[in-house]
Amino acid sequence: MRSLLYSTLYHNISQVTSSCFYNSCRRFKTFPLIHSHQSSTSSNQSHIFNEHCDGAVKSSILSNMLVINDFLSAEEEQSLLKEINQFIKRQRYEYDHWDDAIHGFRETERSKWNEENTKIIARVQNLAFPPNVTPIQYVHVLDLEQKGYIKAHVDSVRFCGNTIAGLSLLSDSVMKLVDEKTKTQEILVLLKQRSLYVMKDDARYKFTHEVLENEKSYFGDLFVPRGRRISVICRNTPDPSLIDSSSDTSTNNNPYAR
Question: What is the pLDDT of residue 48?
């Protein structure tokens, strides 16, 4: 049973005022967990840690892997989908990503959005990035078909900075983090439809992340059915000092996976 393999850390915050929440996030203090009661997946927790995760790892992940459920309203999700489908519907799903990191996907970048969706993107960027951090102009749109999945990887430091912020459209999914050093510390993160995740610093650099395929889409003992999933991802500009010291020597210009 998966419940024997994982110990669960659950933070329940009964009431958080909007101003305090956004101010604390903008200062990059410990992120609270906000739980949804409207998703098709019945779970009141966002993170599950396996037995190898000590207190320091748990604290680090909870500080560097924010999940906000119901960040989008149903109307906002439909607004994004309507615009995305207009420019991505002509593309075919691909099964031969250059480094085999993604299977069953189509993707694009977008720098200009309609007025309503521009406000949504700005809301994501204002929450995820402090005032002194520059978001990358182009927003990455990644469309996974129902059978698609993202294999374990760390996004290249050559193309994006310390923070990744992603909206989840159309489907719930499970993200799995594994520490790169020991390969034993694992964290499952439940990404519900219309949620926002913000991954930064240790979670960004010291752990691989992947989106589990439908057959393996378990959050502990809970099966999380995966449908077609679109993620809208904002990143900040790279840190030049990390680029200079990076061991990532790939000459491929794909910015999303190492």
Answer: 96
Domains identified in the chain, total number:
1
Extended beta strands in the chain, E state? 6-8, 47-50, 65-68, 102-110, 139-153, 163-169, 173-179, 186-191, 196-200, 207-211, 218-219, 222-223, 229-235
Range of the domain at 218: 48-95+102-241
pTM of the model: 0.80
Q: Is residue 66 part of a domain?
A: yes
CA distance 186 to 209: 10
- Sequential DSSP letters for 7-33: EE-----S---HHHHHHHHHTT-PPPP
Distances (CA, A) of 73 to 39, 153, 167, 195, 225: 12, 30, 12, 9, 21
Does residue 22 lie within any of the structural domains?
no
Whether residue 61 is contained in a domain is answered as: yes
d(CA 245, CA 205): 13
User: Which two three-digit tokens encode residue 50?
Assistant: 């396996």
pLDDT digits (tens, 9 = 90+) for 81-95: 999 999 999 999 988
Does any domain span residue 12?
Answer: no
Look at residue 188 in the predicted model and tell me its pLDDT.
98
Q: 23-27, 203-207, 229-233: which range is least confident on average?
A: 23-27
